[in-house]
C-alpha cells in the first residue's frame, strides 16, 4: 500500500503542476491576443459637421481613442456628455470621437449645449448609415 502511495502522490502533484502551468500559459497568450486586438481598429468612414470625410486613417497615432455613440435626445447620452465636460481634464490624454447618425445641425446643437466645441481632443462626426457603426461597435465589445 505504501508503495502505491509513493507513486500516486508524486503523480498527482506533477499532474496539478502541469495543469497550473497550462492555465498560466493560456492566460498569458490570451492577454497578448487582447493587447494586439486593442491596437487595431476596423476601417470606418464618417463625416465631420462640415461634410468632410474622416476615417480610421485620420486618427492620431499613439493616442488612446474613446468612441462615444450618442443621440442628442438620449437622456443617458446627455448625462454622459455633461459628466465628460465636468471632468474634461481627466480626458486630456485621450481623443474623444462622438459619433451619431443624426443630422449635423442636431449634433452641433448637442455639442454647443454641452460646450464640447472648444477642445482639441473632442471630435464630432456623422455616420449616414447606422450599419456602418456595427463592425466598430462589435470589435470594441470583444475587447
From TrEMBL:
Keyword Repeat: no
Domain Alkyl hydroperoxide reductase subunit C/ Thiol specific antioxidant as annotated: residue spans: 40-119
Transmembrane segments: 7-25, 122-142
Gene3D superfamilies in the record: Glutaredoxin (3.40.30.10)
InterPro entries with a match to the protein in the record: AhpC/TSA, Thioredoxin-like_sf
UniProt-listed Pfam families: AhpC-TSA
Keywords for this protein: Membrane, Transmembrane, Transmembrane helix
Keyword Transmembrane helix: yes
Gene Ontology MF terms in the entry: antioxidant activity; oxidoreductase activity
Protein name (Swiss-Prot/TrEMBL): AhpC/TSA family protein
Annotated organism of origin: Flavobacterium segetis
Amino acid at each position: 500500500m505504501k508503495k502505491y502511495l509513493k507513486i500516486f502522490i508524486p503523480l498527482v502533484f506533477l499532474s496539478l503542476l502541469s495543469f497550473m502551468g497550462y492555465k498560466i500559459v493560456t492566460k498569458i497568450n490570451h492577454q497578448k491576443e487582447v493587447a494586439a486586438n486593442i491596437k487595431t481598429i476596423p476601417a470606418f468612414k464618417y463625416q465631420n459637421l462640415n461634410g468632410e470625410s474622416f476615417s480610421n486613417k485620420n486618427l492620431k497615432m499613439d493616442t488612446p481613442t474613446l468612441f462615444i455613440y450618442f443621440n442628442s435626445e438620449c437622456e443617458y447620452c446627455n448625462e454622459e456628455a455633461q459628466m465628460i465636460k465636468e471632468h474634461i481634464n481627466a480626458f486630456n490624454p485621450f481623443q474623444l470621437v462622438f459619433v451619431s447618425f443624426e443630422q449635423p445641425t442636431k449634433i452641433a446643437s448637442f455639442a454647443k449645449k454641452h460646450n464640447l466645441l472648444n477642445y482639441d481632443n473632442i471630435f464630432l462626426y456623422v455616420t449616414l448609415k447606422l450599419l456602418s457603426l456595427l463592425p466598430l461597435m462589435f470589435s470594441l465589445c470583444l475587447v
